[in-house]
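User: Can you help me understand a structure? I only have the sequence.
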Amino acid sequence: MSNKRLKSLRIRAFHAQAGCCFYCGLPMWLASPNELGLRPRSARPYQCTAEHLVAQQDGGKGVAGNVVAACHLCNQRRHKRPTPAPSPDMYRVHVQKRMAKGKWKLPRPRLAVSGHAQAITMEPSVR
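Assistant: Let's start by predicting it. Here is the structure, written out as tokens:
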């Protein structure tokens, strides 16, 4: 799949999900950390990524129904596990349970100094 196509699917998923991560429900930024009022150095975990629900290596297609928007942190943690990545639904439940218990460790965002920046609300969206 071309990068242009994947970018288009990521943007579509971002807007369909109201800018919130598929797994943790926290707000993400799409084009610039300024969207959340974050300093660039602390913004990477909240960057929007395209997540294939069925991986391409497993036959997943690059279509809207198979691509969701996930924050960089959730995407990375799902795939950098010592065991095979859990299904998207299982991982979403895992993340939500850990968040409810206060055990999903998130890097603390550093807000930009600009008075124009809108501060990030670190509460998951209601699903």
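Now, to help you interpret it: Residues 114-120 have pLDDT under 50 and may be disordered. The first strand starts at residue 48 and ends at 52. Let me know which part you'd like to focus on.
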